[in-house]
Write a structure and sequence with these properties.
By secondary structure, this protein is an all-alpha fold. It has one domain. 76% of the residues lie in helices and 0% in strands. It has four helices and no strands. It has helices at 12-35, 40-66, 75-98, 103-142. The two termini are 25 Å apart.
Length: 151
Amino acid sequence: MATQYVMQRDTQGWRTQVWISFGIAVVSCGIGVMALPGQELDRAFLAIGLFFCLFASFAVAKTVRDNREGAVDTASWVMTVWIAFAAAFSLTAWGLWRMNIGEWQKGFMVVSWLFLVSSTFTVAKTVRDKHEADLMARAASADPDTRPGSA
């Protein structure tokens, strides 16, 4: 028996909050990277690490959602996605740890980085929920047996 989901649409307020949070996280990371003291190579490494975490988080969110009812992706793909996420997270953490910057600057970057990863998962879920709700609404309106008043 297939799992059935109740699709409840997110409010406009929630969608706005999600996108604002994601924007703040991206801007915070960008400002943090640009304002960090130290060598350009360290800042470039950190920027690449943050982008790697951003895209790896989207890939994990999509892969998990796509495979929630059963495997649609190969085991190799799922393993690649999770390894990439672990590598992005580990390498970015290592880069931040070894940077020769003040503790408060490291703290700012860690908080903005974790905010970026967290808000990425939230925005991915919100976008996917809207897409699936739209698909379900179109399917329901196209099926005459599911319209109210049909018998």
